[in-house]
Amino acid sequence: ILGELRGVRGIVANAVDHQNAVLTLSARQRGFTGPIIALVETPSRRAPMTRAGATAVFTPRHALAAALAAKASVKIRPRVAAELRLGNALEIAEVRVHRGSGLVGTTLAAAALRSTTGATIVGRWNNGALEAPPSPTRALDVGTILVAAGSRDAIARLGALATPVARTGRFVILGHGETGRKVAQFLRDADEEVTVVGERAEPGVDQVGDVLDPALLTAAGIAQAQAVLLVMERDSETTFAAAVVRDLVGDAVVIASVDNPEHVARVHRAGADFVLSVGQVAGQVLSFQLLGEDAVSLQPEIKVVKTRAGALAGQRLRAAQVRQRTGCLVIAVERGAEVVVEFPDDFVIAADDRVYVSGTPATIAAYFAAVPGSRA
After folding, report:
1. Any bridge partners for residue 230, and if so which?
2. Which parts of the chain register pLDDT below 70?
3. Which residues pair with 357 in a beta bridge?
4. Would you state the pLDDT for residue 298?
């Protein structure tokens, strides 16, 4: 064994808990000094595993619960990471394309939402995948969630065309196993209002019965929910629950967890907006611990950054082709005491302007490289 361990960067102990302990002790006894990451099913075994020699010990289902709660609540993790906000002049909001919306089947280019509503579409979620900036030529599907930036009036006009995603109200959690209990704890710790639906009467369960019974879900207030989280113990049950819930709530955000990553696409098709698997979360934790990198992006984000005009000064914004050159979108310009969020075709960037751009971390970096003097 010692020969096999020479040159090894790290060890992942991912068997049952007692086997992980034996592996960890054996490796340390044979002189291995590198990192050993152990995964345990039972949280109370973290400390003993550390004493056995593990560098770090994680409970995958608790990590999954944290990711689900962060996806659900803006109090835990904002949808958009903004270095600066512009008070009431600029809002970031999400809208869902409702099945009765005239946007269904059209493209962002054809809809011309910026000119008709004043809002800029900075991203879109479809089947759990974030596209930022969104393609102007890809048709909008029922259930697509658009991320928009603009004035309060602009967001209201856009919401009238689609459907605003609720950012107030309770969270309804279906399932009260290990993951469900932890999700509820994370949300309650963030001062969110939570209703838990479970099959057994036990502490923490608010509604007891068949979690797929429409009458029980209605009594749990699912129609008024900000989001519904599906944390069932079987993926087949989660798949059916996604269809049942989507039929009942229409436009609430539905977030689900699965054990088998191969079932992610199936649960999406059944009606869930976001689906996370235990393996996906564990993979991210392990890649960060062993490689120092975020190899699996569970929470891709859109950033809003305040920049100087730099090389854009004196140029017409439309002619500058910021999106084509960098992948970023200009969503607002701060000019003295005024904040401009709707730009006419002849709008020219002034040297003293502060330009707010949105994009992913990669496209923001591309923007700074393409626009000299823009870094604030």
Report:
1. 174, 256
2. 1-4, 78-89, 283-301
3. 305, 330
4. 40
- Rounded to the nearest 5 percent, the helix, strand and coil shares of the chain are 35, 25, 40
- Copy the structure tokens of residue 205: 């369960």
Look at residues 175, 151, 312 and name the one whose alpha carbon lies nearest to residue 231.
175
40 class by beta-carbon count within 10 Å (0-12 exposed, 13-18 middle, 19+ buried): buried
- Write out the two tokens for 317: 């914004």
Burial of 346 (0-12, 13-18, 19+ CB in 10 A): exposed
- Let me know: does 225 contact 171? Beta carbons within 8 Å: yes
Q: Which residue has the tokens 């609540």?
A: 73
Q: List pLDDT tens digits, range 248-260.
A: 987 778 999 998 8
Q: Angle between the 178-189 and 60-72 helix axes, to the nearest 10 degrees?
A: 40
List pLDDT tens digits, range 95-127. 888 877 889 999 999 998 988 888 889 888 877
Instruction: Tell me the three-class secondary structure of 130-180, residue by residue.
Output: EECCCCCCCECCCCCEEEEEECHHHHHHHHHHCEECCCCCCEEEECCCHHH
Partners of 197 in beta bridges: 174, 207
Please report which residue ranges of the chain form alpha helices under DSSP H. 2-5, 17-29, 46-51, 60-72, 108-111, 113-117, 152-161, 178-189, 214-219, 235-249, 264-270, 278-291, 317-320, 322-326, 361-370
Unique residue bearing structure tokens 């707010």: 356
Please state whether the predicted TM-score (pTM) of the whole model is above 0.85. Answer: no
- What three-state secondary structure class fits 117? helix
**Do 212 and 240 form a contact (C-beta atoms < 8 A)?**
yes
Name the residue among 329, 321, 313, 311 with its Cα closest to residue 369: 311
Which pair of tokens denotes residue 84?
A: 């600066």
Given a contact cutoff of 8 angstroms between Cβ atoms, the answer to whether 244 and 216 are in contact is no
Nearest Cα neighbor of 72 from 250, 252, 213, 236 is 252
Residue closest to 37 by CA, chosen among 8, 66, 64, 65? 8
Residue 121's identity, in one-letter code, is: I
Query: Locate tokens 């939402």: which residue?
Result: 113
Contact 245, 230 (CB under 8 A): yes
Name the residue with tokens 């696409």: 265
